[in-house]
Amino acid sequence: MENIGYYLFLLAAIIVAFLIIKKVTTCMVKSVVLIVLVIVLAAVYFLYIR
């Protein structure tokens, strides 16, 4: 019966890790989209406006 505490701790650790990874990846996705947008705007400026 003492293994139940271990499994509960393991389940809680997996849930916390999943939530942290989810937060980090959404932030990374926003950063990548922002970088791509800046690159596209710079390319449009240098190729067509300038």
What does this 3D model show about the protein?
The structure is a single chain. This protein has 50 residues and is mostly helical. It contains 1 helix and no strands. It has one helix spanning 3-49. The longest helix has 47 residues, at 3-49.
In what range is the share of β-strand residues?
under 5%
Largest sheet: none
Number of helices: 1
Spatial shape: rod-shaped
Supply Rg.
Answer: 22 Å
Average pLDDT metric: 87
* Head-to-tail CA distance between termini: 73 Å
Poorly predicted regions are: none
- The count of β-strands is 0
Specify the helix fraction band.
over 70%
Structural class comes to mainly alpha
Order of helices and strands: H
Kindly summarize this structure in a few lines.
The chain has 50 residues and is mostly helical.
Which descriptors apply to this entry?
50 residues; mainly alpha; 94% helix; 0% strand; rod-shaped
Topology of this protein?
Layout: H1 3-49
